[in-house]
Amino acid sequence: MSESSINLTRRQALAKFAVAGAAFTILPSALRGAAAPSNRVNIAMIGTGRQGINVNMKTFLGMEDVRIVAVCDVDRKRAEYAKSIVDAKYGNSDCKLFGDFREAMEMQGLDAVMISTTDHWHGIQALYAMKLGLHVCCEKALTRYFDESQALVQAADKTGLVFRTDTECRSAAYMTKTANLVLNGYLGNVQRIEVGVPKELQSGIGDPTIVPVPEYLDYEMWQGPAQLRPYSVDRVHRTNPQTGEPVQRPGWLRLSEYCAGMICNWGAHLIDVANLCNNTSDTGPISCEGTGDFPTDQNGIWDTIVSMDLHYEYANGVKLDYKISNAYVRVEGDEGWIQANWFGKSGLQAHDRKIFRTKFRDTDKLVSTKSDKRDFIDAVRKDTPVMIDAKAGHRVFSQCLLGLAAIKSREKLTWDPVSEKITNNPQAEAMMKYSYYRPEWDLKQFII
């Protein structure tokens, strides 16, 4: 996209959104794709934590048709560290630095954003970006709450902008091989799927000690739509104060005010592949039941789920079992089984290893083997569909939230994937659909 053409569209959008809820301008398709005046995508990194820098930013820096033009973080040290990496790569000092995502998204010449912030910010930030005519690549879990996840689906449909739920799992070679074998009938009819996610972030309880907010952290902005809480390091994240480099996994990943837990964060990876294999990426299960455990030490602050054993059933009769153990997807058909392990030495396993030497037929429909970031950039430049759009990301997220509700209600829940409602337990429905926004960040003002 050219700077002049994209800025015209975004100026129009900004003018129309001066009043909340005003009609908006959909980005004209002529400004996207192969006919675009420029083939380079200018992108801003919103969130420069561990994942934002080490996985997302550094990958984009290695792509010739991408230019990182801005970094944004409420932690100034982290943002400065990210800017130094970008400037060193390009051999200049041009990368802009912001502490407010709105200012970053409103800069001229921007085409897209990579959102790598805390989960409770994803929905508002992604909606704000799409109101400005920006394409969005958004970290998983897609959001923190069901209503904002659903709003992203509607916004992506309404605007026609590229929206990718960012997970690299589908691009992993073992996952791709498994999906291609399953979808083309080499295991016969699918009967059962088993998904495991790692035993991660289970030790420790979270130190609640209240300490002064670091001078480089805008803690009020970090909290944003969430309830205001006193600052403690294990509530937020750790940063090397000398270098600005992120340290360890952040504490917010284990606090339900900001993140639903590993059931959703890891589930975004593996449940997505399971739904791909089951042809259910645009729908959901019809029931769920299971058990799970949460932290019980009252001296800590971390409260997200630490163990689970969930059982889903789909309308096509396929059953899916989901638990915390290791990262894998196992698909069982009436003619055999295959298991793709994401990490470790075992790789692929199957009822017969000969299946790994399968030569696909010319008539077979094969899923994409693109990397996650290449998938996003090609969609922006060439107007091609992304592997995991807003709807697929939302369906995975809502399925995981359904699992949480089933565990907490201790009851088998029936789910209508069309109306997206729990049909047999109003209390569980309310639990699953709960959300919280401080008035100044009310979601309604961002919905498209």
TrEMBL record:
Gene3D superfamilies: Dihydrodipicolinate Reductase, domain 2, NAD(P)-binding Rossmann-like Domain. SUPFAM superfamilies: Glyceraldehyde-3-phosphate dehydrogenase-like, C-terminal domain, NAD(P)-binding Rossmann-fold domains. Coiled coil: none annotated. Residues 41-164 form the Gfo/Idh/MocA-like oxidoreductase N-terminal domain. Residues 209-441 form the Gfo/Idh/MocA-like oxidoreductase bacterial type C-terminal domain. One of its GO terms (molecular function) is nucleotide binding. Pfam families: GFO_IDH_MocA, GFO_IDH_MocA_C2. PANTHER family: BCDNA.GH03377, OXIDOREDUCTASE FAMILY PROTEIN. This is Gfo/Idh/MocA family oxidoreductase. It comes from Rubellicoccus peritrichatus.
